[in-house]
């Protein structure tokens, strides 16, 4: 033990002299990014080594971390939830600065531009089609709904954008993307993969689909968001229902009322009670005069799972 302490002391002395002689009196700065994403015992080991070996004049370590995640790692390494992770980290961190998160409307718009979505959504062949020309605004509005209301971590937002942009390469220029359902399914895949796999397995009832949707959405339902969330809910039910059986044997989501001559919804909304008229309005919009209403879940998931050919 005495020999180990002497070795550490000699190392520090040699390092301090080296910096003084070679760096013109300027500090040597090390930047360690995303330490919290490393294996927990490795992250703790790095902190310990910084403390024991590099605690000398003119060496500065800047450590970029998610403090909560690193705190959980520390508790895991030492096998106790009773450890005060903040107090533990004070042994290593002299000055602490918190970087504020970007405003909610900034980051997803930045990601949209960064991944160059306009190169697909604003293709001349798409914007001249009435059914496809609003895909850009649909995509952005859905991202706003999902990301600004449910507090999705920035890393997961970036992952969803990167993944959907790659998946878009498997769509042809005149193919339906239906951005609100496309983004929702990518959102489910990355944040709630178990539900995503259950959808593809066709083992859920429509009510179970709705219940799972409500659990994951975590969006404040109010007058401003209610209609958008219901659109996501009913669109998800429609593509799932289209998947479960062949078209000619498909369970109906609405039917013609012989008394009134109007269409009548056979399903309700888990978002809002007694909203059959609003549900029917959404179903009519989905099925009005084009193929969108006949698309099933696999139209989207095969591309999100990158099982379709990527087109350059």
From TrEMBL:
One Pfam family in the UniProt entry: KAP_NTPase
InterPro entries assigned to the protein according to its UniProt record, in alphabetical order: KAP_P-loop, NTPase_KAP_P-loop, P-loop_NTPase
Highest taxon of the lineage: Bacteria
Annotated KAP NTPase domain residues: 11-111
SUPFAM superfamilies: P-loop containing nucleoside triphosphate hydrolases (SSF52540)
Protein name: P-loop NTPase fold protein
Record organism: Flavobacterium sp. WC2429
